[in-house]
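Input record, target 12 of the design panel.
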């Protein structure tokens, strides 16, 4: 049984939801999990964990600066333990951008950091227009229009492939 940390950054809550699902899958396989939002607990002692998983959402093409800072601050420790990273972004709704090696946001992120995660995943996120502020709703609709995604301002569309999340949870359990 391993003690596993899942640390994440979420913008609208979908990454948190994915982390909770990962936690359920991994706990069922006999491991102890602690899932923590970097926004709620920015100073986390990672030394007591056997494995570390980091997840981050995308907003306007970028991952959270807090996640980047956490990675750079803890790079040596991350490299010394089994580890994984996953990105949550709506562009992953497209099959051709749903794999780590094909996802432009993940590839850009990996070039930006010095850490090389052992396991990678990309999960499609969620569009929830009614919950967005006016400017975010406008900008995301514009992006979706340009990329042929949903633009109905009342739409709530979850693109996450939960079997893919479950599979990643099983991978994390065995790394």
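The sequence produced for target 12 reads:
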């Amino acid at each position: 049984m391993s003690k596993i940390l899942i640390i994440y950054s979420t913008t609208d809550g979908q990454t948190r939801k994915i982390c909770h699902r990962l936690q359920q899958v991994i706990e069922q396989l006999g491991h102890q999990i602690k899932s923590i939002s970097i926004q709620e607990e920015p100073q986390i002692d990672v030394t007591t964990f056997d494995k570390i998983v980091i997840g981050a959402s995308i907003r306007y093409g970028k991952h959270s600066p807090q996640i980047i800072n956490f990675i750079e601050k803890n790079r040596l420790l991350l490299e010394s333990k089994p580890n994984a990273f996953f990105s949550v972004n709506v562009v992953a709704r497209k099959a051709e951008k749903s794999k780590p090696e094909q996802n432009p946001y993940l590839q850009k992120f990996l070039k930006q950091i010095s850490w090389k995660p052992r396991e990678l995943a990309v999960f499609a996120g969620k569009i929830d227009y009614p919950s967005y502020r006016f400017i975010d709703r406008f900008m995301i609709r514009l992006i979706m229009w340009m990329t042929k995604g949903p633009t109905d301002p009342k739409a709530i569309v979850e693109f996450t492939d939960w079997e893919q999340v479950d599979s990643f949870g099983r991978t994390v359990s065995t790394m």
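The two ends are 12 Å apart (CA to CA).
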